[in-house]
Amino acid sequence: MLSLDLALKSLRNRAFSTSLTVGSIALSVALLIGVENVRVGMRESFSNTISQTDLIVGAKGGTIQLLLYSVFGMGSPTNNLSWDTYREWAEHPAIEWTIPYGLGDSHRGFRVIGTNEDFYRRYRYRGGQEIALAEGRAGSEVFDVTLGADVAAELGYGLGDQVAVTHGIGEVGFLNHDEMPFTVVGILDKTFTPVDRAVYVTLEGIEAIHFGWEDGAPPMPGEEQTRDEVLAMGEIEITQVTSFFVGATNRRDVLRLQREINDYVGEPMMAVIPGLALNEMWQGIGYAETGLRLVTIFVVLVGLLGMLVSLYTSLNERRREMAILRAVGAGPKRIVALLVLESVCLSAAGAIAGLALVYALLSAGQPIVEAQVGLFIPIRPPGSIELLFLAAVVTAGFLMGFVPALKAYRTALHDGLAVRV
Amino acid sequence: MSLAIEVRGLRFRYGSGPWVLDIPELTLERGTRAFLFGPSGSGKTTLLGVLAGVLKAQEGEVKLLGRDLTSLSGAQRDAFRAEHIGYVFQMFNLIPYLSVLDNIALPARMNAARRARLDGAGVKETAALLADHLHIGDLLKKRVTELSVGQQQRVAACRALIGAPEIIVADEPTSSLDFDRREAFLELLFAECERAGATLVFVSHDRTLESMFSRTISLLDINRTAF
Predict the structure, then answer these.
(1) What is the pTM of this model?
(2) B159 contacts in chain A (CB < 8 Å)
(3) How far is CA A101 from CA A71, A83, A194, A201, A243, in A?
């Protein structure tokens, strides 16, 4: 096709400005597709914060609230469930396993979670990965504490260090359980989930530090129990949990189980399906990603405008060329076609180069990003979204090509065979 | 002999400006080597634009090879020009991003009728043959920016001649050449026009070349707006 041949040769003749234009379109396309990939990665990493848990159960309240305090260590639980109720459900035939959580205390801004060995055995995140210990052992005694990776790193704790727990969740609680320090016995491997920012003790430990606090206020002076006194008491009775994670025996029973828990008459409680609740939550914060996408679309438009400017400004020095083309019989339509083809070629080359750039950057940067920020960005062949973006960029390039093309058309009609400047 | 060009009652102006051309009559027989001269501003380039069908006369008839250009649409005039007219500019005749060969081949590639008149030879072969005739056969692969002005004008002549158009229009193609080269160029051009039986309309303000042509037309005489 003659016009395409001419367009390509003309672009090659202006190799420097052509490569600049293609480069700027490529960068903006790479940004657009890159943001899309990061968005998908963020979303997946978000919904993979917890995996293989079928239900999260807590006192009746908001579903997102339950998810926030149980999984993300944000916000405060409203009410606890009694231990007896928990045990009753834990032995339900449709439930295979549970992980109990006792919440409400903190250590220097990090949440303290009371749990038991089921946490270390059953908790799964990001596609079924298990909790692993980097050092020491999983806490099992009353005053044992196991630290999340970030907690240990940020506070500089090592095995054997003494840790005091603060009542309440604030950064600077003044009601410290100083009389009962805990001993660090283990540090968890980094998971890139909220697990890294939590402190794990036993449910017995949570009970012990609250002896004398039954009315919600600290014990009267002189009535505090010391660590040794608690240890001397022997077996500690657990009275409550805040929430618990449930693995169903059979996944098909999950909905029925959820309904059964929500209808439970012994105590007001509710169950949420983490996947659904996470989705609901993501949609709540989705406007942020819409904004991000909007910005990248504008970046692409700016890239295409750069092309427009470069084609448009080249027209004046190409008037002679247009006059020659007209003299050898090119109609104004062919001149329009030539310039539109040039901008289609530029935007298509930019789009393809941008796609290649994204994949090059992703494959080079994926391990680094995962290690540094814990965001796993999956690399997959370009999907319908990417192809849609590319088609949109080429279409926009095609449409924008008409601006210089129509200018050239008018100039060619006016100039005829003589260039009047 | 039939007429190559027959202009009657032609009047032309740009937009609503003053009349630039007012030519009651101009006829050229086929095979004529016409020398059209006139000082700057006498409407030479405008007349060539009208004859090439790029500009459309507001009044009168402009018949080329029996077809009245004023009755054709813009696209039809473009097609007519592509098929029947070879055009040589004063200077800067070549598309900078095409090779010498591609420049010469351009009209044949753009127009099927010109291609059909290559007598079965390929576009490349014909271009190479023409280049040989004009003594630039060794330059075919070169970039046009590497050529001297004289070489460029010969490439332009080859391009005008490829596919044997009936009318060759040359707008002061020798004004950038020195005298000896002018004559050499003209002789080559005449030879090729004769070989193809083409009518040549050669425009210049320089009357020293006049004697080489078979007919001389002064624009001052035929164009009533000029003075």
Answers:
(1) 0.72
(2) 328
(3) 10, 11, 14, 10, 5
